[in-house]
Structures are given as C-alpha cells and as structure tokens.
Amino acid sequence: AYTIAPGFVNTDMAQGSIEVYGEDYLTKDLALDSIAPPQQIAEIASLLASGKLKHATGQTFHVNSGSYLV
C-alpha cells in the first residue's frame, strides 16, 4: 500500500493559519521555502494510481516542502 504524507498544504482550511502567522513564518523551516499547492498532492496521487510504479511497495511519499531536510 502507498501512503501520502503531506506537510502544510495551501488549502482553504490552511488560509486561517496563513493569515494569522504569515507565509514567511510558516515556511522558515522548509527546505523549499514555500507552501505546497494542492496540485502537488494530486500529482503524487495520480502517479500512484497510474500503475507505473511496478516495483515500489509499501512506500510513504512525503510531500512536505523538505521539512525533514532542515
């Protein structure tokens, strides 16, 4: 089974946090220095559903703008 582990994603639900804390504060500890758009999560989901990853098993795909790298 595949899982997707998103970090902070720029969604309607996240707008409150972005307005309160500001994008600079929320991205200061991210290697890519930006909040992921929902399309990034959708692209990973599409790839996983495509069947193209025939030799990947039991993977977790971290889509978190590099938060584990900093």
List keywords for this structure.
70 residues; alpha+beta; two-stranded parallel sheet; 2 strands
Provide structural commentary.
With 70 residues, the protein is α+β, with helices and mostly antiparallel strands. The chain has one domain. The chain has helices at 15-21, 23-27, 38-50; strands spanning 3-6, 60-63. It has a two-stranded parallel ribbon.
Number of strands: 2
How big is the Rg? 14 Å
**How much helix is in the residues?**
25-40%
End-to-end span in angstroms? 28 Å
- As laid out across the biggest beta sheet, the strand order is 1-2
So how many helices?
A: 3
Task: Describe the sheet with the most strands.
Answer: 2 strands, parallel
Mean pLDDT: 91
Strand content: 5-15%
Going by helix content, strand content and strand pairing, the class is alpha+beta
Shape label: elongated
Order of helices and strands: EHHHE
Q: Which runs of at least 5 residues are low in confidence (pLDDT < 50)?
A: none
The total tally of domains equals 1
